[in-house]
Amino acid sequence: MTILKTRITELFGIERPIVQGGMHHVGLAELAAAVSNAGGLGLITALTQRTPTLLAQEIARCRAMTDKPFGVNLTFLPSVNPPDYPGYIAAIVEGGVKIVETAGNNPQKWLPLLHEAGIRVVHKCTSVRHALKAEAIGCDAVSVDGFECGGHPGEDDVPNFILLPRAAEVLKIPFIASGGMADGRSLVAALALGAEGINMGTRFVATREAPVHENVKAALVAATELDTRLVMRPLRNTERVLANPAVERLLEKERALGAAIRFEDIAPEVAGVYPRVMQGGEVGAGAWSCGMVAGLIHDVPTVQALLDRIMDEAGQIIGARLGGLLARA
């Protein structure tokens, strides 16, 4: 059995340097517990729970399924009527969670509360400058998300083969590679480029424990690396999503309206889509996040089998293939 010890496994107290990304209507207790039980770090997505009380219940549900470390993803959204962030943080602290993945806006305002409770904070970043800012304000680690990733890749369009070594050149805190991660090859490549582990989102959706409709899992297995699209670029809120007829309609609106486009124009294709897709199985209902890594997804294993396979592959690559390439003088 391959064991890899990195700064991330040490920081989070986990056995394997593999983190499950926070995903709307996917990051529920079932998946988070399965990932943690398999030696990785599972994450509950806070804002999928409509209230702090519901998040507290989800944390308790996860706690009943695993005695391993798990975390909570909390996205700070720019909003006229923001969610009850103090309430969500109270639920996290009172639930005894010790790892939080933040995303979206700068989390500096909330770091004292989290650190006072002994919580490690990892912030999602899509650029080196944002990663450096996260380090400067006191985050314990960052997740560096390359252009390949599903969801929001930022506006710089830098893929991980450049972004990860750039991050390694300047960061002092450990970082996780996110975007395009699916197997042992991904893990070894990320480690070689300077990361201390990997974050997988789309790959974890196509597992047996993922609490989503079977149509979603089948769509990911059927998709190739050519089947994602970038939407909401004119709004500077770019999202990588799986191609479908609703997404093509959205893109046609963007082409037709150009700089004049408003969110209201594309609301039919993006608003309220996730429950219809993830729970209802309406995979063509609208735009839903999917990484280019879909091209590397060929099955729907258990989480345990997936993580075992990733670690075995990584061990083979490091010990046999790469070791065998070293020429002896």
Report on this structure.
The protein has 329 residues and is α/β, with parallel strands linked by helices. The chain has a domain of 203 residues: Aldolase class I (TIM Barrel, Alpha-Beta Barrel). 42% of the residues lie in helices and 14% in strands. The strands form 2 sheets. It has an 8-stranded parallel β-sheet with strand order 1-8-7-6-5-4-3-2. It has a two-stranded antiparallel sheet with strand order 9-10. α2 runs parallel beside α3 and α8 crosses α14. It starts with 6 loop residues before the first helix and ends with a helix.
Q: Can you describe this structure in just a few lines?
A:
With 329 residues, the protein is an alpha/beta fold. It has 14 helices and ten strands.
Gyration radius, rounded? 19 Å
Strand order of the largest sheet: 1-8-7-6-5-4-3-2
Give unreliable regions as ranges.
none
Mean pLDDT: 96
Outline: globular
What amount of the residues lies in strands? 5-15%
Derived from helix and strand composition plus strand pairing, the structural class reads alpha/beta
Number of strands: 10
N- to C-terminal separation? 31 Å
CATH architecture of the domain at 7-209: Alpha-Beta Barrel
CATH class of the domain at 7-209: Alpha Beta
The CATH topology of the domain at 7-209, please?
TIM Barrel
Measured as a percent range, the helix fraction is 40-55%
Total of helices: 14
Provide the descriptors you would attach to this structure in a database record.
329 residues; 10 strands; alpha/beta; TIM Barrel; eight-stranded parallel β-sheet; single chain; two-stranded antiparallel sheet
